[in-house]
């Protein structure tokens, strides 16, 4: 925080490597029947307690204007958990992520990501004005853990049946998504080994590894085989 | 026939004519074409027998040659090809056999043992005996090991692995295996601490259980604790021993010399720390880390931050200035395990002349612990609900900063600008004021039996704000009570009484004065009530004029008084109240002389006279020491007396 204030602008802060722009992440999947064991294991090895979360995420896309220009994806995520009376609700988070780095030698997936808290009422209008179009939405429900700088979430993705109505949801699959994620400023590659080492510790329960989503989508039968 | 022998040269050469193949009907001869070089070679090659291995079967060769010559017409190289093919087949078979034989799963190539089996019986027996012996030894070792394990299980409540499991599951220690050693983590990093000190410990299987038992038999006088644990932990040497944070307020009367502080530093004591269970051992070590973190942060802040009066950090000691004459000393006291077997407490500390050991404050120590834990929890993750994306360390204020368009000033406000040292100084000031008020109240409550003083300490308060409510009331009457409220903050002490608020600045005398005044006031109030109850008439009344300053207080201030007359106006009483003094009751003396020329009627006797003080203690009211009750009784008596006299 002090570092933020001491810098005159965001751009300056980013150049000096204060803003965490790199996300190192790994993905895995586990069936409902085995989830409790994993949660138990995570609870034992992570810092603090597990926290239950219920988030709604909307993804917007800005189609590339020029030929071969990549699409820009932006997701807006808000918590659906009830707020204690008298407290101000935490704002929703907007996240931009680009395509992951295709370097296979790295132990984790790396992508550039930017997180910013936004005002929910105005951001949708703003994105629309910029030309973003609504792509899809889902509700993520599960547990989040913390281990040092790594955030570990075990969550189930739910489909929203009627657009915009987050009460009517149904689970997409019988499996849960596991995500190991750590956001850090550029030049903190050593964190990758830390994440990978911890993911390897959970090998008896679940295989958490680099998953290239693009490759998975193109694989036939991906939808029917959610358990890795 | 004898021919003359002539040396005739006969030349032998190849016939120039080619062999005739056939005759045509016209008698023309068709001779065969001569063999070309390659045809000649192939014919010669046909003659080679690839199957024969030398000149052993020459006859067979000749026999085989005859048919071979007849078959040449089909294809010149056929026989060669056939032979080569058969050779290839044999080579392939050989190769296959070799491959299989190399694998040793289906086939093995062994040399044929043509040796005669050894018939030497004694040698055979010896080798068998040796083999049996070694087998027996292995079984014996196994039995021993099993027996030992069984004994261990019987002697101990649980085995090593079970205890290790409990250590992780029940006690929540973080353990991991590195190589062959088990390493645990003692630090508070997972709880949000940023202290970088090393805090690892090693878990080992204890092997000295037998030694411990032997030790007990040798020295029965000393009773070492019975530790039935298969786990042994070893912590770094810097985390051994006991540590506590020593926080205390001292009064500096000008004699405290800072140069002596180094010699005043808390003693490092050495004590024999008996064998302790691993739980206690780890708890102690973790406590050491915690105390070190507190002290480390305090000393760092004391040096780096600017205060009106500079702080002093000497050794394991920090000295801060609360007021000109009050100092806060925070020190880290250590007790290290003594290597000396005698077990006596050794101290290298000699108190200096100036060092007066101040009272040790548990409250401040507890506050320090609480402050650091708050810092830890602040740095830990933000509690839900919030979207789980986003950075871990972001505070709620920072999350709100964007959407609510906070400026630099608001952001700076959100930063935890107040340091641990500043907080503890604020809390110490409050603690000092609180102690001051409490001690004055206790003293006054001890001094005054009538009226009674009851002090309520507010249960709801913070470490830098609290309330004390004081009730003054008579033991036999709940109707009149006086209420005071002390509001204690860090720098300011306020006293609320009725509608007035006084600001008291850590002045014990002033607190005492206010209380004395209130007591005085209360007495007058209770007398007024008694007067009303007995139907006496108030002739004149002066409430107590509060005095707030020492100088006036020395003269007792201006007293409050009540002048009352009996219903028939024949008796007049004067009650005077001075603070810090007892109330005096005086009765107006009436003339007792006989009638004279001037005084013709009895009623003129009551006219005037001097006031005489009455000692209320002489009254026979042993059951009540309450002043108001005595006054009430006195008035009743006087009234009755005048009535009897009058009628």
TrEMBL record, chain A:
Domain of life assignment: Eukaryota
Lineage of the organism: Eukaryota, Metazoa, Spiralia, Lophotrochozoa, Annelida
Species in which this protein is naturally found: Dimorphilus gyrociliatus
Nucleus found in the keyword field: yes
Record text on subunit structure and interactions: Component of the Mediator complex.
Listed InterPro entries: Mediator_Med18
Gene Ontology MF term list: transcription coregulator activity
Name of the molecule in the record: Mediator of RNA polymerase II transcription subunit 18
UniProt-listed PANTHER family: MEDIATOR OF RNA POLYMERASE II TRANSCRIPTION SUBUNIT 18, MEDIATOR OF RNA POLYMERASE II TRANSCRIPTION, SUBUNIT 18
Family membership noted in the UniProt record: Belongs to the Mediator complex subunit 18 family.
Task performed by this protein: Component of the Mediator complex, a coactivator involved in the regulated transcription of nearly all RNA polymerase II-dependent genes. Mediator functions as a bridge to convey information from gene-specific regulatory proteins to the basal RNA polymerase II transcription machinery. Mediator is recruited to promoters by direct interactions with regulatory proteins and serves as a scaffold for the assembly of a functional preinitiation complex with RNA polymerase II and the general transcription factors.
GO cellular component: core mediator complex; mediator complex
Record has Transcription regulation as a keyword: yes
Alphabetical keyword list: Activator, Nucleus, Transcription, Transcription regulation
GO biological process per UniProt: regulation of transcription by RNA polymerase II; termination of RNA polymerase II transcription
Location(s), subcellular: Nucleus
TrEMBL record, chain B:
Source organism superkingdom: Eukaryota
Keyword Nucleotidyltransferase found: no
Protein name (database record): Mediator of RNA polymerase II transcription subunit 17
GO function term, MF aspect, one: transcription coregulator activity
InterPro entries found in the cross-reference section: Mediator_Med17 (IPR019313)
Keywords noted in UniProt: Activator, Nucleus, Transcription, Transcription regulation
Function as written in the Swiss-Prot or TrEMBL entry: Component of the Mediator complex, a coactivator involved in the regulated transcription of nearly all RNA polymerase II-dependent genes. Mediator functions as a bridge to convey information from gene-specific regulatory proteins to the basal RNA polymerase II transcription machinery. Mediator is recruited to promoters by direct interactions with regulatory proteins and serves as a scaffold for the assembly of a functional preinitiation complex with RNA polymerase II and the general transcription factors.
GO cellular component: core mediator complex; mediator complex
Organism for this UniProt entry: Dimorphilus gyrociliatus
Region ranges (Disordered): 51-71, 204-228
Subcellular location: Nucleus
Subunit relationships: Component of the Mediator complex.
GO terms under biological process: regulation of transcription by RNA polymerase II
Family indicated by similarity: Belongs to the Mediator complex subunit 17 family.
Coiled coil: none
Biased composition (Polar residues): 214-228
């Amino acid at each position: 925080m002090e570092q933020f204030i001491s810098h005159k602008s965001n751009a300056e802060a980013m150049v000096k490597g204060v803003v965490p722009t790199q996300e190192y992440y790994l993905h895995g999947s586990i069936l409902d029947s085995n989830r409790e064991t994993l949660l138990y294991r995570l609870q034992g090895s992570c810092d603090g307690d597990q926290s239950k979360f219920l988030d709604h995420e909307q993804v917007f896309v800005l189609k590339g204007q020029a030929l071969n220009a990549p699409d820009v994806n932006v997701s807006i995520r808000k918590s659906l958990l009830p707020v204690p009376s008298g407290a101000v609700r935490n704002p929703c988070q907007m996240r931009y992520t680009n395509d992951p780095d295709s370097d296979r030698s790295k132990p984790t997936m790396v992508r550039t990501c930017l997180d910013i808290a936004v005002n929910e009422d105005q951001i949708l209008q703003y994105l629309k004005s910029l030309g973003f179009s609504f792509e899809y939405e889902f509700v993520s429900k599960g547990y989040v853990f913390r281990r040092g700088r790594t955030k570990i979430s075990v969550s189930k993705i739910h489909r929203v049946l009627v657009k915009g109505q987050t009460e009517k949801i149904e689970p997409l699959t019988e499996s849960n998504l596991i995500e190991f994620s750590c956001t850090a400023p550029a030049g903190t590659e050593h964190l990758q080994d830390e994440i990978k080492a911890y993911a390897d510790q959970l090998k008896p329960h679940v295989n958490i590894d680099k998953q290239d989503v693009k490759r998975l989508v193109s694989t036939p039968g991906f939808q029917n085989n959610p358990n890795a | 026939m004898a021919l003359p022998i002539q040396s005739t040269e006969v030349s032998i050469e190849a016939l120039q004519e080619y062999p005739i193949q056939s005759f045509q009907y016209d008698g023309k001869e068709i001779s065969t074409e001569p063999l070309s070089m390659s045809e000649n070679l192939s014919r010669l090659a046909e003659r080679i027998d690839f199957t024969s291995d030398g000149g052993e079967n020459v006859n067979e060769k000749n026999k085989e040659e005859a048919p071979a010559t007849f078959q040449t017409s089909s294809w010149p190289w056929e026989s060669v090809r056939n032979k080569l093919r058969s050779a290839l087949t044999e080579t392939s078979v050989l190769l296959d056999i070799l491959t299989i034989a190399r694998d040793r799963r289906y086939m093995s190539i062994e040399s044929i043992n043509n040796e005669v089996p050894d018939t030497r019986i004694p040698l055979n027996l010896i080798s068998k005996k040796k083999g049996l012996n070694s087998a027996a030894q292995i079984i014996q070792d196994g039995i021993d090991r099993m027996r030992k394990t069984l004994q261990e299980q019987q002697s101990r409540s649980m085995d090593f692995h079970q205890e290790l499991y409990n250590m992780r599951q029940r006690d929540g220690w973080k353990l991991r295996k590195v190589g062959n050693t088990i390493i645990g983590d003692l630090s508070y990093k997972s709880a949000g601490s940023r202290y970088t000190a090393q805090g690892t410990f090693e878990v080992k299987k204890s092997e000295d259980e037998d030694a411990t038992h032997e030790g007990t038999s040798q020295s029965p006088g000393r009773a070492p604790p019975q530790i039935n644990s298969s786990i042994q932990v070893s912590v770094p040497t810097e985390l051994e021993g006991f540590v506590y944070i020593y926080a205390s307020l001292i009064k500096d009367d000008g004699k405290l010399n800072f140069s002596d502080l180094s010699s005043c530093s808390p003693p490092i004591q050495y004590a024999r720390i008996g064998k302790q269970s691993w739980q206690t051992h780890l708890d102690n070590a973790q406590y050491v880390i915690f105390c070190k973190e507190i002290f480390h942060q305090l000393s760092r802040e004391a040096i780096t931050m600017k205060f009106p009066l500079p702080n002093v950090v000497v050794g394991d000691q920090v000295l801060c200035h609360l007021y000109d004459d009050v100092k806060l000393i925070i020190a880290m006291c250590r007790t290290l395990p003594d290597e000396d077997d005698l077990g006596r407490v050794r101290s290298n500390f000699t108190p200096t002349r100036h060092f007066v050991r101040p009272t040790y404050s548990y409250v401040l120590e507890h506050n320090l612990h609480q402050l650091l834990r708050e810092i830890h929890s602040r740095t830990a993750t933000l509690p839900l609900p919030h979207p789980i994306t986003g950075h871990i360390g972001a505070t709620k204020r920072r999350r709100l900063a964007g959407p609510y368009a906070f400026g630099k000033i608001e952001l700076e406000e959100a930063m935890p600008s107040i340091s641990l040292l500043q907080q503890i100084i604020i809390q110490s000031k409050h603690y000092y004021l609180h102690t001051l008020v409490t001690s004055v109240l206790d003293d006054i409550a001890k001094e005054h039996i009538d009226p009674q003083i009851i002090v309520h300490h507010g249960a709801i308060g913070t470490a830098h704000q609290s309330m004390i409510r004081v009730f003054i009331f008579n033991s036999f009457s709940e109707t009149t009570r006086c209420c005071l409220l002390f509001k204690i903050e860090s720098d300011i002490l306020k006293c609320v009484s009725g509608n007035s608020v006084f600001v008291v600045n850590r002045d014990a005398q002033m607190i005492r004065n206010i209380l004395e005044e209130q007591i005085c006031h209360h007495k007058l109030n209770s007398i007024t009530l008694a007067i009303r109850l007995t139907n006496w008439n108030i002739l004149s009344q002066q409430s107590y004029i509060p005095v707030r300053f020492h100088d006036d207080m020395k003269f007792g201030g201006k007293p409050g008084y009540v002048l009352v007359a009996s219903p028939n106006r024949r008796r007049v009483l004067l009650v005077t109240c001075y603070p810090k003094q007892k109330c005096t009751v005086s009765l107006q003396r009436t003339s007792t002389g006989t009638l004279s020329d001037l005084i013709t009627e009895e009623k003129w006797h009551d006219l005037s006279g001097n006031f005489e003080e009455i000692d209320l203690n002489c009254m026979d009211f042993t059951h009540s020491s309450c002043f108001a009750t005595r006054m009430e009784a006195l008035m009743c008596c006087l009234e009755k007396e005048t009535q009897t006299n009058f009628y």
